[in-house]
Amino acid sequence: MKGEELTEQETALYDRQIRVWGVDAQRRLSKSHILVSGLRGTAIEFCKNIVLAGVGSVALNDDRPVTEEALTANFLIPSDGERVVGKSVAEICSESLKDFNPMVRVSVEKGDISCQSVDFFDKFDVVVVCCYSLAAKRMVNEKCRKLSKHVAFYTVDCRDSCGEIFVDLRNHAYTKKKLDETMECQIHYPSFEESISVPWSSLPKRLSKLYFAMRVIERFEDVENRRHGETTIADLADVLKLRTELCQANSVNESQVPDSLLERLIAGPSEFPPVCAIIGGILGQEVIKAISGKGDPIKNFFFFDAADGKGVIEDILSNP
Amino acid sequence: MAAATQHPFSAIKGKKVLMVGAGGIGCELLKTLALSGFQDIHIIDMDTIEVSNLNRQFLFRQTHVGQSKAKVARDAVLRFRPQISITPYHANVKDPEFNVDFFKQFHVVLNGLDNLDARRHVNRLCLAADVPLVESGTTGFLGQVTVHVKGKTECYECQPKPAPKTYPVCTITSTPSKFVHCIVWAKDLLFSKLFGDKNQENDLNVRSGDASSSSGHSEDVFVRKPEEDIDQYGRRVYDHVFGYNIEMALSNEETWRNRNRPRPIYVRDVLSAALSQQNGDMENTKISDDPLSVSAMVSLGLKNPQEVWSLVENSRIFLEALKLFFSKREQEVGNLSFDKDDQLAVEIVTAAANIRASSFGIPLHSLFEAKGIAGNIVHAVATTNAIIAGLIVIEAIKVLRNDTSSYRMTYCLEHPSRKMLLMPVEPFEPSKNCYVCSETPLLLEINTQRSKLRDVVEKIVKAKLGMSLPLVMHGAALLYEVGDDLDEIMVAIYSANLDKVLSELPSPITGGTILTVEDFQQELSCNINIKHREEFDEEKEPDGMILSGWTQALTTENNKNSSAGNGTSTSSQAVPIETVVDDELEILSGETATLHSGKKRKISDSSKASNTSFEEKSKRKADELELDSPIVVLEGSMEKDNGKKKRLQ
User: Is A307 an 8 Å CB contact of chain B?
Assistant: First the structure.
């Protein structure tokens, strides 16, 4: 990366953040390519953050037409009806995002990316899937892992006032500063499948209850063949039944996955904008850390619950 | 089920919110409020949009540079939420129109400010109007959100606030040991001397031990003689400040007994005659109408602001910049003050600080770094502001529900502490000793036979107590007051009073006097007990008076987390904080925060944290690590000399 300087325009625009992460990190950011699929509120927040940060390119994937539902936590869809007619959420959002930072290329990828070939993912450095089904998360993660290139993989989910981030950086080398010294570090990540296959009984007692609750609902939607967030309060009895089965199969007490938590996650609106902002912000920071190779990244889950206000990191399967 | 998340709309409906600040946090907050269903939002910000805002203040575009932040932010949000009402005010929150009655119309006030002064002002108005306040701040990856509800939680001023870092005069003028000392010298002394108001007091030539000999000879040095060649003048100034002055300082052996002796630097030693003659090629400098674009770097062909220049390069920049000021911007010389957006000013300050640093064996810095220190630039990123804005909205909804038991102050951390990146802590009760939200009198020790009323008004009432429109009373006698409605006679009396020694006022102030000071706009009133004291230590007590009973944090220079410089005499620290020790959380507030150790809080104080495992663990930890496991709460502080442009973001 030597010999390359930021342009005057970049130096002026990015002045305040270069003071946070340095010129090298800024250069790496400007060469990175990011794919974001599933443009719900959290993904929109994330897109805003990385476009402002000055990544090289962002590809958006979401073929849904613009409906009332798509508008709920989305500030990239203008309300002047004409512009949105006949366009997908990704198309409209890409137009708005381009405006945020003319130095970032924003494009649209059509179709279901979980069905894409492995090669498709080779052109990205970071892949983020938002509000994906269990099967689709698994498929995309596996495809990214088949590449020789290290593609950083993230899933994000928001349900009611809770959010979850999963991170898979495979083998990640980075530097961090401890006191005044720079340390070289390396960490290994389990895949999504490996992580969620860990028997619950072998997990730490004080693991965030959200981890279990998210797995129960994810499994429920998978079994019922529903899309993400299609579970409602009417399904509560069935969700609780699945919870009981999973707890028994994993030999853990049902109190690990409280009724009230499950009820809250399926009863509330699918997205709570302040939580989207928080999860999208944390995810943005993580992606910047991963690209720049600076600072300890999250390994490998992050949970936020507005009810208690805690944002917690959980390391599932610390020794893959 | 948690109340905080039930039907947020029912709590929000019909509620009126005031946002103060439309900058880094403000843009994110306005967006999140609108998406969350808030319908009636008022927003105050006096600032206009700058290019360096655009990396995070995402409601603004290049084409908006120069326009009102509050107004542009409103228009941008209405594009995706046209049905809601947003009322912008392009004004200073300290303007009299924003009085207690104005504040009373709101159900909650949300601060996204960048300076201590405005934060204190809003805190007082919220207390007076009895409106809850959600306060916030960010620096780099760090941030915090706190809730202040009168009578229920501590007010913003219950906790000590760090003072802007100041340095002893002789450290700056004679014995710098850090780069920041050189920056302060270059910016506050040399730059002011060369280009500022010549009548201003200036310590530039005060040398340790022989202050008396400084005036005669040196005063003339900075004045360009009629017809004097500009290159000649530049070399004369250079030799005087980097050579002669150091030589003089060296003559005082006492100073250097336990210090490294500095090296005098003269132009002839650094630049060959030819080189100093044919300095920059001004003919090739692009001709521009904008004085702020004149640049010595450009004329010398130096491009990279991240690069550390050699002594030779710094010397050439210094001479070239001086020459450019006198040739391209001559009409401004005599009334310039340092501005971080003034390229030539940043160049000459960087170069001067580096030459001085060379003298004293201090490592040199790049223009980019020097600009950060000199301009009190606080690093800021979009992600932290977005997270903090989300947390503000969550607290605002709790406040609107009156869900007192759920209020939390939340810290956003760069490195996890006990697995947490977002750490909630229960708010504290109001402090009984707070002069703002309780009625505790203050104590002022002062020499009543020497100090003037002006000293009390400027150094105590305005600077320490943060009053902007103060009134000073002794019993029923009014000694001082400001306001538009005063008649000329009163104005004359008050201004005469300002210059009187305390004990000679019409109603004399002596030991035992109780003064009442008030600010009508802030509806704040407090009593000050006066105690006469004869002597004060000039270095340790430079104000010549000591105020106690108010909570000002001590500032410590040897803070281990801020080795690269603790800010400047007028300012805040400007280096990335990357060295936070694991069990210690450093929280800064305000986009211009200062790194100072404030009051320490132990995690165990947070009690009743809702998760038992967390509570147990933290209790145990607190037992084990009683002293070395504090959360150091650090909060914003403002640049006190930036009076010409106090900024809200």
Answer: yes
Q: Is the CB of residue B231 less than 8 Å from the CB of residue B277?
A: yes
**B38: exposed, middle or buried (Cβ count in 10 Å: 0-12, 13-18, 19+):** buried
Chain B interface includes A204 (CB < 8 A): no
Q: Which residue has the tokens 């920049």?
A: B317
Distances (CA, A) of A35 to A108, A140, A286, B588: 9, 12, 15, 33
pLDDT, tens digit, for every residue of B237-285? 999 999 999 998 898 888 888 888 999 999 998 887 555 555 555 444 4
Residue A100 touches chain B, beta carbons under 8 Å? yes
Q: Determine the structural domain holding residue B199 and report its residue range.
A: 179-361
Q: Using CA coordinates, name the residue in chain A closest to B75.
A: A78
Is B170 an annotated catalytic residue? yes
C-alpha of B165 from chain center: 9
Q: Which residues of B touch A23 (CB under 8 A)?
A: 306
Query: What was the ipTM of the complex prediction?
Result: 0.96
Closest residue in A to B391 (Cα) is: A274
Q: Where along chain A do its domains lie? A: 8-193+271-314, 196-267
Is residue B370 in a domain?
A: no
Is the domain of B420 the same as that of B397?
yes
CB-nearest partner of B141 from A80, A205, A285: A285
Report phi then psi at A313, rounded to 5.
-95, 135
Residue in B27, B126, B170, B526 annotated catalytic: B170
Q: Does B31 touch chain A (CB under 8 A)?
A: yes
Count of domains in chain B? 3
| CATH classification of the domain holding B185 | 1.10.10.520
For residues B248 and B105, membership in a common domain is answered with no
Q: Which of residues 558-577 of B touch A (CB under 8 A)?
A: 563, 574, 576
CB-based contact (8 Å) between B25 and chain A?
A: no
Q: Nearest residue on chain A to B412, judged by CA atoms?
A: A311
pLDDT value at residue B521: 82
Q: Which CATH superfamily is domain A8-193+271-314 in?
A: NAD(P)-binding Rossmann-like Domain (3.40.50.720)
Q: Are residues B649 and B543 in the same domain?
A: no
Residue B374 lies in a domain: no
| Residue B563 in domain | no
Q: Measured between CB atoms, does B65 come within 8 Å of chain A?
A: no
Q: Is the torsion defined by CA of A170, A173, A177, A183 positive or negative? A: positive
Identify the helix (H) or strand (E) that includes residue B485. Answer: none
* Chain B residue closest in CA terms to A204: B613
Q: Which of B335, B361, B387 is the last residue of a domain?
A: B361
Q: Which backbone phi and psi does A41 adopt, to 5 degrees?
A: -50, -40
Residue in A19, A160, A205 nearest the CB of B379: A19
Q: Which ranges in B239-330 belong to alpha helices (H)?
A: 245-250, 253-256, 267-270, 273-277, 296-300, 311-328
**Tens of pLDDT, residues A170-187:** 999 999 988 778 899 999
Co-location of B216 and B247 in the same domain: yes
B9 and B154, same structural domain? yes
Q: Are residues B291 and B405 in the same domain?
A: no
C-beta atoms surrounding B488 within 10 Å: 7
Taking CB atoms and an 8 Å limit, are B420 and A177 in contact across chains? Answer: no
Read off the pLDDT of residues A13-43 as tens digits, 9 standing for 90 and up.
888 888 888 888 999 999 999 999 999 999 9
Residues B98 and B3 in one domain: yes
**A216 CB within 8 Å of a chain B CB:** no
How many helices (H) and strands (E) are present in chain B, helices listed first? 22, 19
Question: Residue A20: its chain B contacts at CB < 8 A?
Answer: 140-141, 379-381, 576
Q: How would you label B608-624 residue by residue, b for 16+ Cβ within 10 Å and e otherwise?
A: ebbbeebbebbeebbee
> Are B457 and B425 members of one domain?
no
CATH number at residue B65: 3.40.50.720
Q: Under an 8 A CB cutoff, do A16 and B81 touch? A: no
- Measured in angstroms, the CA of B644 and the nearest CA of chain A are apart by 22
Average pLDDT, chain B: 79
